[in-house]
Backbone:
């Protein structure tokens, strides 16, 4: 006589497979999270490092136009920012101004590219922080797309030949900028 399997006979095996599946998924999720914790959140890779910067031009808040092709031969710090970017853009604003004041006589140009913002708050931000370096709006978003910007703030250092040598995501430290700028100026 054969016994017909009943749902009760399959329950232990089914429960075992479900439990094994849940444990496997939990281990995978924990592994991904643990791996993520070992990574620097500011280290967003850029395929542009070591490549020519995307040239751009835009109208400046102070009047006139900036064209990066005219800046070949100079070290450039290009910073993407927005007035609504708090606290990071507010933290780095004085640092960028100090870099401009300290290095401009040595051929370093700091450029602010305002993105995803409105003109009035952007102008107020510039006034509040006394920024005198060239600042303009990326009205169409093309400049930030060409640079592969994920969000604000992001800062790029470009050498005298127009090659992107470094990228920083977040409120850029003054020491980081100085380290890269000094290295590039020493190459002259």
Residues:
């Amino acid at each position: 006589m054969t016994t017909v399997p009943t749902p009760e006979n399959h329950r232990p095996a089914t429960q075992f497979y479900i439990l094994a599946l849940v444990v496997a998924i939990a281990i995978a999720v924990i592994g991904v999270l643990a791996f993520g914790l070992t990574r620097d959140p500011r280290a967003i890779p850029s395929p542009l490092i070591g490549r020519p910067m995307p040239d751009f031009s835009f109208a400046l808040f102070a009047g006139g136009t900036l064209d990066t092709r005219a800046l070949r031969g100079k070290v450039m710090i290009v910073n993407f920012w927005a007035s609504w970017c708090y606290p990071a853009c507010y933290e780095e604003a004085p640092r960028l101004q100090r870099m401009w004041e300290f290095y401009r006589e040595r051929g370093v140009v700091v450029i602010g590219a305002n993105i995803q913002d409105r003109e009035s708050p952007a102008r107020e931000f510039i006034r509040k922080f006394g920024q005198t370096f060239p600042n303009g709006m990326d009205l169409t978003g093309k400049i930030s797309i060409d640079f592969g910007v994920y969000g604000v703030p992001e800062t790029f250092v470009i050498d005298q030949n127009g090659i992107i040598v470094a990228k920083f995501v977040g409120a850029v430290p003054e020491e980081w900028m100085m380290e890269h700028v000094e290295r590039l100026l020493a190459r002259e």
In short: Strands lie at 57-59, 65-67, 75-81, 108-114, 135-137, 154-158, 164-169. The chain has two domains: 1-39, 57-186.
